[in-house]
């Protein structure tokens, strides 16, 4: 975990997520067929997390499965890491940084056969 002085800057997060599609909160609400207040509830409950860039909050499209729902494995890893004391920026760094031992990024592996391995590694990191 990073201490408060080492939190990823907005610029570093923007670079990390530069190649990913980012959805505004109203777009997330539309995608899920929910009211915007329910999206805020999902954020508060750490079912999903948002990155703040230039004063606006965005949720990566990679958090959703091919049916347009929140991936249960994504929510699971976010919960495990958040419960382990990871900040949102640390969770983004973990999920979107390539890991040659997977191979690839954990966020991508969560949508395939390596999902359980990503969750296992998150549990080991968090505790």
Automatic annotation (TrEMBL):
InterPro entries named in the record: Rv2175c_C (IPR041098), Rv2175c_wHTH (IPR048576)
Domain DNA-binding protein Rv2175c wHTH: 16-64
Domain Rv2175c C-terminal intervals: 72-126
MF (Gene Ontology): DNA binding
Keywords: DNA-binding
Coiled-coil region list: none
Name under which the protein is recorded: Rv2175c family DNA-binding protein
């Amino acid at each position: 975990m990073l201490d408060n002085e080492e939190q990823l800057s907005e610029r570093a997060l923007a670079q990390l997520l530069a190649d990913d599609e980012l959805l505004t909160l109203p777009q997330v609400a539309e995608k899920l067929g929910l009211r915007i207040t329910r999206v805020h509830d999902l954020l508060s409950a750490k079912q999903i997390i948002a990155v703040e860039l230039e004063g606006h909050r965005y949720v990566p499209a990679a958090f959703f499965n091919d049916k347009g729902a929140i991936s249960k494995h994504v929510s699971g890893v976010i919960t495990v890491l958040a419960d382990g004391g990871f900040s949102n920026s640390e969770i983004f760094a973990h999920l979107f940084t390539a890991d040659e031992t997977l191979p690839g990024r954990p966020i991508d592996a969560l949508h395939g056969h390596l999902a359980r391995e990503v969750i296992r590694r998150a549990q080991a990191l968090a505790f």
